[in-house]
User: What shape does this take?
Amino acid sequence: MKEARFDARGSRVRWTEADGDGPARVYVHGLGAASTVYHAHIAARPELAGRRSLFVDLPGHGLSDRPADFAYSLESHADALAAVLDEARVVGAEIVAHSMGGSVAIVLAHRRPELVTRLVLTEANLDPHPPATAGSSGIAAYTEEDFVARGYVRVLEDIGATWAATMRLADPLALHRSAAGLVAGTHPTMRRMLMELPVDRVYLQGASSGELAGYEELTASGVRVVTVPGAGHNVMFDNPDAFVAAIAGCP
Assistant: This one.
């Protein structure tokens, strides 16, 4: 396990790392998740093995610190991820990111373009105010105080066992502020940033999740959109072969 400071008081963002050749491949989890749980089995596949791989837990999640005075906005998460790459002396990384982590990766690439050469995004949030059915919208519907006091326990009881297993490791306040950050979005939007980034961009959409909004606009901007059969939001669990093929650059 390695760590980097991400705020003025010295809070640490942590990651685990597998040695290998470069450029580094950096895995970033979604809301209430942890990177190794969602991605270690993917990085170990023969098609991807041998690359330097970093599995980052964003602030408030997994093994990272959870300061109460941190914003947990998409921008602040992106700054913490940049602190990881700076500490690890990584530039030109390939970032494989899921859901909220994909939004963070887009913001990172927009703010620190020297750090990123390729994005592989799995159902990343591209727009503010996601549907009420989204996990972030349900969490953000609570006030911060009510979520910390009561909502966190309710959400853990209502979600699936896999997500609950990692959400138990997330700080309730950090979870609510991160969800609120997703609902608020960014300026320009994550979608607009993604369309304008001068890097290789792959977007994975689980077929069970329905049609990707703005598909034609994204593809026209050079984003390669892959609809993954037999998969929902968690493509890396539902269809790992397709997920690995997309990272490896296979059609």
About this structure: DSSP finds eleven helices and eight strands in the chain. Residues 34 and 62 are 5 Å apart (CA to CA). The first helix runs from residue 35 to 43. The mean pLDDT is 96.
